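Q: What structure does this chain adopt?
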Amino acid sequence: MMAQVKASLVSAVVAVVAVFLSPAVLAFVEDLDDSFKDSRVNDIWLVDFYAPWCGYCKKLEPIWHDVGVELKTSGSPVRVGKMDATAFSGMASEFGVRGYPTIKLLKGDLAYNYKGPRTKDDIVEFANRVSGPAVRALPSKQMFSHMLKRHTVLFVYVGGDSPLREKYNDVASELIVYTYFFSASEEVLPEDVTLPELPAVVVFKDGGYFTYDEYTDSSLSSWVNKERFQGYLQIDGFTLYELGETGKLVAIAVINEKDPTEESGRLKGWIQRVAKEYREDFNRDFQFGHMDGNDYINSLIMGEVAVPSVIILNTSNEQYFLPEEPVQTLEQLVQFISEVLNGSAQAYGGDGFIQRIKRIGFDARSTIMSVFRSSPLLGCFLFGLPLGVISLMCYGICTAEINDAASEDMDPLKREGFTDEEEEEEEEEEEGEGAEHPHQLEGLEEEEEEEGQDDNDPEQEEMDDKNPQEKKTD
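A:
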């Protein structure tokens, strides 16, 4: 009896372990096919559309597995999958996939593109934010204080139902891929927050708060898109790309954080002061920050920027502005920014035809140099082989022209090399050719005789000089 009980317990344990170790449970990332189109409707999916040959896709693969593990173990409702976009190109086209890898969160009829850094934490944060409600409620002061500490930028709608709330909900559904949106009553706000009127949309950041004004700040969507960044940022290539969607000019202190100098610290401090103290003057049109090193800036402007220095970028048309003289005071920096704002500063670069041609050449040279730096042998093979083939083709063409010219000069050379017998044979052939046409030769001789008579007969000349009447009398 006891043996049967033990056997039953062992079989039960084995069954439970088998269930937890089954492929369905261990499938943190699911492989998707054509059936996904019909099965996805009732779930929220985070999908990686990849190509097997894509290097970036292969680099993302272990990170994507970690994302699946994190969301699965945390109890998130988001299911993680991946789809070979080359094998299921029709499905990928329906979701608007144009490059690899493409990350999308699919919720109902909506598809949200992920454009952030490809790290586990950033992707998981994106999935948790977008999978939840577009606007989250803050029911208490404690919850408001917690969220204020957690987020560097916090958008809050304050008030009851109104047309402004409807606009806010629409904007939240559109821009939730970038930031969180909350709603609260006036009682939940800190005591030092005073609003001129309700309802209102407020952004809390940079140690203060700022209210949306529909008369001066244009559309709510545009205002939120510009205010979703802190006033001062550490800027890299990805951040600069995101800032391009705001339409703002970007004022950057280019410094070397690995080898800080007094001048670098001074420029960085002045940029920070302008961002805070001159917000009312410049915040609507400028984003402020610093960038470590000048490599990325140099590639953008196809030139050389000194370190440390100040540069202002217009990411919408690839123009940039540099101060005419090194910035020595805060007042000089403010004056430079004001000149850029009013259009009196000299603009460089741009996206004109000449600049595009220059960009193609610059990118080609940069690509070749990077290949040779990383793998000299591969560079010699990739670029040496085509050049060798082209050289052989040119050599063949030139050689063919020389041979043609040589063949044209062969006849006179052959004639010079004839023997006496060969020359006699050739003369006989020519005489034979003349004998074949005796009538033609006779005709030519008669014509020559007549011409000779006309030229030498004086009586004929006299007859020619007489008029027709005299010729008749004669």
